[in-house]
Write a structure and sequence with these properties.
Layout: H1 3-18, H2 22-34, H3 36-67, H4 69-91, H5 108-114, H6 119-132, H7 138-169, H8 173-189, H9 192-195
Helix pairs in contact: 1-7, 2-3, 2-7, 2-8, 3-4, 3-5, 3-6, 3-7, 4-8
Length: about 200
């Protein structure tokens, strides 16, 4: 991979991970509701889970979906149901002082596993492999994984940090509730690409 292609890949990876989507919307909500430090495991779960997804997609996972189209349909249904459940959880989150004792941000494992039902993550992984590792050799796929690993954490950290900044202005229960409902509606809106016929 020459320098120009590597630079294009890094730019693609950064833009793909910094733009709005389910991960970033949930990080924004988590930063606002729990603060930056408590959102760090969520961020690292995204980083590791998404990197693993790209690696497996590049090494032939999509061939399985091509061979068994019903699996893709099942994945789409699971994505829709899980995102609707997450949207409900975000919309109904209580302000920190009224939250249940067991209320906590998404864990590392949950965030890593979420990538497998995240429509944007699938779209990014497929596009990255198609564009930058079309031959699907291990070295080219690993380069794509590394490009996303380097750019992902700064990009998603920005969303958690913005949530933390917003937290100061969301100390009022009504404003925090409005914010959480707005984030939930945006999560539901992010399902649009999944629900549209191909």
């Amino acid at each position: 991979m020459d320098l120009a292609i590597a630079a294009a890949l890094m730019g693609f990876a950064f833009v793909a991970t910094v733009t709005p989507g389910p991960n970033n919307l949930m990080l924004l909500a988590s930063g606002a509701n729990f603060g930056f430090r408590r959102t760090v495991p969520h961020m690292f779960g995204i980083l590791i889970g998404f990197s693993a997804m790209i690696l497996l997609v590049g090494m032939g996972l999509m061939a399985v979906f091509d061979a068994v189209p019903l699996l893709e349909t099942g994945l789409r249904i699971a994505s829709v149901l899980y995102l609707l459940w997450l949207a409900w959880k975000v919309a109904s989150a209580a302000p920190p002082e009224h939250a249940e004792a067991d209320a906590r941000p998404m864990s590392f494992i949950a965030a890593a596993l979420f990538q497998w039902v995240n429509p944007k993550a699938w779209a990014m992984a497929l596009s990255a492999i198609t564009l930058y590792a079309p031959e699907r050799t291990l070295p080219s796929v690993v380069l794509v994984v590394l490009a996303f690993a380097v750019t992902c954490l700064p990009a998603i950290s920005l969303w958690a940090w913005i949530g933390t900044v917003l937290r100061r202005s969301l100390s009022n229960r009504r404003r925090l509730t409005a914010f959480n409902v707005s984030m939930a509606l945006l999560l539901v809106a992010s399902l649009y690409p999944v629900l549209m016929p191909r």
